[in-house]
Amino acid sequence: MFDLSNTNSTLVDFDLHTGLSKTRETLRRPLSAMKGMYHDQAAFDATVKSGDPLVYEFFDMGVPDSSGDVAYGTSITYPGKVGDEYHMTKGHFHTVLDTAEVYYCLRGHGLMMMESPEGEVEVQELTPGKAVYVPGRFAHRSINISAKEPLITFFAFPGHAGHDYGSIETQGFRKLVVERDGKPALVDNPRWSK
Ligand SMILES: [Fe+2]
């Protein structure tokens, strides 16, 4: 629009329909990258064997990891299930535990699953136009409960927050979201233990 060179700011495109960018690459997580995340191991193995679908992708914009910076990007979780469990992101705590994050839903229908180390569980519904503020200390995972549409969110969190997948990679979250009678249901994770 104006001829201004040597900018310190950044302008990036994120497509509202696909969540993707013409100028940046995503990090992609096929189902095979999520070993142990879904409760139905047989369904997991069969789905990986039959084509290893892309479950989600997201942007790492390479923002500096300082507390004054803000990491941001879109996250796209594709529709589908593994057994009766909906497609979801791995989910994580922040390494600096008490750092928050905002997710703004651009497209689709999903849930934000959150839990604290002390066992508080919270779930918020995501539809276009809704923003979820994930408070510090809460692990968070996006779950796509639409049969057809990708769940697309725009996220922002402090640059120094970091990602801690440790306890989630070994036993997951306390609660799972599975399909029961065609609808999402919150159930106990049978693999979760203190
Ligand atoms: Fe996060």
Automatic annotation (TrEMBL):
Taking every annotated instance into account, which residue ranges of this chain make up the domain Glucose-6-phosphate isomerase prokaryote? 32-179
Q: Which GO terms describe its molecular function?
A: isomerase activity
Residue ranges annotated as transmembrane are none
UniProt keywords (A-Z) are: Cytoplasm, Gluconeogenesis, Glycolysis, Iron, Isomerase, Metal-binding
Cell wall biogenesis/degradation among keywords: no
Catalysed reaction(s) here are: alpha-D-glucose 6-phosphate = beta-D-fructose 6-phosphate
List the subcellular locations. Answer: Cytoplasm
Q: Which Gene3D superfamilies match?
A: Jelly Rolls
Instruction: Give the main localization category.
Output: cytoplasm
The metabolic or biological pathway listed in the UniProt record of this protein is: Carbohydrate degradation; glycolysis; D-glyceraldehyde 3-phosphate and glycerone phosphate from D-glucose: step 2/4
Q: Which InterPro entries match?
A: G6P_isomerase_archaea/bacteria (IPR016758), G6P_isomerase_prok (IPR010551), RmlC-like_jellyroll (IPR014710), RmlC_Cupin_sf (IPR011051)
> What EC number(s) does its UniProt record assign?
5.3.1.9
Tell me the subunit arrangement: Homodimer.
| Family under the similarity heading | Belongs to the archaeal-type GPI family.
Record protein name field: Glucose-6-phosphate isomerase
- Origin species: Variovorax robiniae
